[in-house]
Design a protein that fits this description.
Radius of gyration: 19 Å
Mean pLDDT: 96
CATH architecture of one domain: Alpha-Beta Barrel
Structural class: alpha/beta
CATH superfamily of one domain: Divalent-metal-dependent TIM barrel enzymes
Low-confidence stretches: none
CATH topology of one domain: TIM Barrel
CATH class of one domain: Alpha Beta
Strand order of the largest sheet: 3-2-1-8-7-6-5-4
Largest sheet: 8 strands, parallel
Distance between the termini: 4 Å
Order of helices and strands: EHHEHEHEHHEHEHHEHEH
Strand content: 5-15%
Shape: globular
Number of strands: 8
Length: 297
């Protein structure tokens, strides 16, 4: 099964999300501030629902939500957005639609979520961000939060131990949703797999990140260990192509035939594949057309 993340180019402006900057927010009076935040949040949730409906119409059953659906959610601490009836109503519609149509959903915290930082304030802010996404997850029925290991300050071994230690600061609810992904700069497949096996959490295998950062590991030997971290649930993997070449860390607009073939070879019938290329669902549709298949898995 193939999926894509966040915006939907096909829907044009109806498939994109709005934001509220701190600068804009600060210029409004208190009443207008809350109105602006709420209206933007409801609009973004409505957009998400429309994207899910587009997915259903196009036989796509995996989608990653934007992590910025609720503007300034961690900045305006006095705004209890999760208790707002209109936001709750839209979230319930999303949850019911995804469940009724068997669309597998997920969320990916932003790059500033560094749980293993050596700076207490960064760790605190990262936990706050995860708490926000956990609240949103519970409202929309999401059970997967995907993060990277993060900082390498102090050396990789100490950084990995910090992740394990700081993981224990999270609520059980967040811990149950967290999955860890190998990255393209610091923490390779074996690093992440070791952490996941230690904590008993699923590992997301990113094949392009592996192309950019690896120690020559034999993926055929690690495949079953990665699957085992999912404890009977269907594993997910990520797929993208380098913008200018095989190991370019920047993501290309589309997926090359070579990269798609390698991903399929690894995935077999066991993994769902999330596309992380720039052109989102257009890349997914291109794969279908190029490989003459309705819903490739």
């Amino acid at each position: 099964m193939l999926g894509f993340a966040c915006i939907c180019n096909t829907l044009k402006e109806s498939g994109r999300f709005k934001t509220v900057t701190v600068k804009t927010f600060s210029k409004l009076d208190e009443i207008e501030q809350l109105k602006k935040l709420k209206s933007t949040a409801v609009d973004n949730l409505y957009t998400s629902l429309q994207i899910l409906k587009w997915c259903k119409e196009n036989d796509i059953h995996m989608y990653r939500f934007s992590s910025d659906l609720i503007p300034l959610a961690t900045y305006v601490v006095s705004w209890h957005w999760w208790q707002d009836p209109d936001i709750q109503n839209m979230c319930t519609k999303i949850k019911e639609y995804a469940q009724e149509n068997k669309i597998r959903i997920s969320l990916h915290p932003d790059q500033f979520c560094v749980l293993n930082s050596d700076k207490p304030e960064v760790v605190k802010n990262s936990i706050t961000h995860l708490e926000y996404l956990n609240r949103l997850s519970n409202l929309i029925g999401n059970k997967i939060l995907i993060i990277h290991t993060g900082s390498t300050v102090g050396g990789k071994e100490k950084a990995m131990q910090r992740f394990i230690d700081h993981f224990k600061l999270l609520s059980q609810d967040i811990q149950s949703k967290l999955t860890l992904e190998n990255d393209d700069k610091s923490f390779g497949v074996m690093d992440v797999l070791t952490i996941c096996e230690t904590l008993g959490i699923p590992m997301i295998f990113d094949i392009h990140h592996y192309n950019c950062l690896n120690a020559g590991e034999d993926l055929s030997e690690l495949r079953q260990r990665i699957i085992a971290t999912w404890k009977g649930k269907r594993p997910k993997m990520h797929l993208s192509s380098g913008k200018t070449g095989f190991t370019d860390k920047h993501h290309a607009d589309y997926i090359t035939d070579e990269d798609y073939a390698r991903a399929l070879q690894f995935a077999g019938d066991d993994f769902d594949i999330m596309l992380e290329c720039k052109q989102k669902e257009l890349a997914l549709l291109q794969i279908r057309e190029t490989h003459h298949c309705k819903n490739p898995s």
